[in-house]
Amino acid sequence: MTALPVHRITMPTPYPVGPVNSYLIQADPVTLVDAGINTPQAQKALLLGLEDIGLSLEAIEQILITHAHPDHYGLVGFLQERSGATVYFPKREIARVRDKQMLFAIGKLLLEAGMPLELLFKMDQQRRQGPKPGMDHDEVVPIDEGDEFDFGGFKLITLHMPGHTGGHVVFHEVETGTLFAGDQLLPEVSPNPLLEPSLDEPGERRRSLKEYLASLERMEGLGLELAYPGHGDPVRAPRELIRATIEHHLKRKSEVAGYLSDEPKTVYELSSEVYPNVRDYDVFLAVSEVVAHLDLVVEDGDGLIETDPAGVARYRAPVP
Predict the structure, then answer these.
(1) Is the overall model pTM greater than 0.90, yes or no?
(2) What is the pLDDT of residues 84-131, one digit of tens each?
(3) pLDDT per residue over 59-74, tens digit each?
(4) Which of 51, 110, 254, 258 is geometrically suited to a Cys-Cys bond with 115, CB 3.0 to 4.6 A?
(5) Mind listing the domains of the chain with CATH numbers?
């Protein structure tokens, strides 16, 4: 089978990760995978990208979303209004963004990680100032593991692969070994396994890195030849990148374990040591990264966890 009729459209974001990708599948039906961020700059880049392909917004018939981060679905409302396209959204991500208590639950997890309350307020203010996704979550079609999208000569299969977020999905074309990977496989940075409440166990924290490594192992078994990532250039050797990403996290786990001592430390304190130069909202990413690796450290017996009456967790080296 020949390569899929895919065009990459790159749009700017205000985030350190840089530009985000959307992918136009020029087939029947005309499909967009991910929809950029809701800013005038991204909107202009999307329109110019479609113009270069020779298509208008009205040509888009369906939109497939990999996960509910604003740089991946922000322009959905704009696209729906202009094209009438059907939007397919990961079922578990809809539940996450609809839940009005989710932000409070994440805040609680950050306080349990030892983050100062004043920093938490400052981060929330910065979040409120960022671009807001323009969409009505009631006007999307939920998708989950195994859902298929038929294009006549090929089809995409939805695979639920949690890690970066709990409801992240990817779209797999078996014959060519092609994967629309969202933020689950990135060529230049390792996706952050984000700190989030569990959707399956109320009151519990998602074990994000453990989920992510399991997803990478599953991805490794797909026999991939090409991956289209959410950020960066197409990945021509995905199996090698998958293996390198797994090794990266195992190495990082050992590095994080090396910061443990006889003195119990909160995740926030440890993240300040592991990533001493991060500021403001990026502290959330640092805390997410460290606590995710600490889950594996504790599971492997290389660290111990203690929780005080207020729910704040502290980690220390095991007793010799």
Answers:
(1) yes
(2) 999 999 999 987 777 667 888 888 999 999 999 888 888 877 777 777
(3) 999 999 999 999 999 9
(4) 110
(5) 6-251 (3.60.15.10), 259-316 (1.10.10.10)
